[in-house]
Amino acid sequence: MNRFDDKVVLVTGAGSGFGRAIAMRMSSEGAQVMVADLARENGESVVEEITNAGGNAAFQTVDVSRADQVEKMVEACIETYGRLDVLVNNAGYSHQAAAMWKLTEEQFVGVFEVNVKGVFLGCKYAIPKMIDQGGGAIVNTASIAAVSPRPGLTPYNASKGAVLTMTRGLALETARHNIRVNCVNPVASDTDFMKGAMGVQDRLSEDQVETFIKTIPRGRLLEPDDVAAAVCFLASDDADMITGTALNVDGGRSV
Ligand SMILES: NC(=O)c1ccc[n+]([C@@H]2O[C@H](COP(=O)([O-])OP(=O)(O)OC[C@H]3O[C@@H](n4cnc5c(N)ncnc54)[C@H](O)[C@@H]3O)[C@@H](O)[C@H]2O)c1
Question: Checking CA distances to 248, which of 4, 90, 141, 255 falls within 20 to 30 Å?
Answer without folding.
Answer: 4
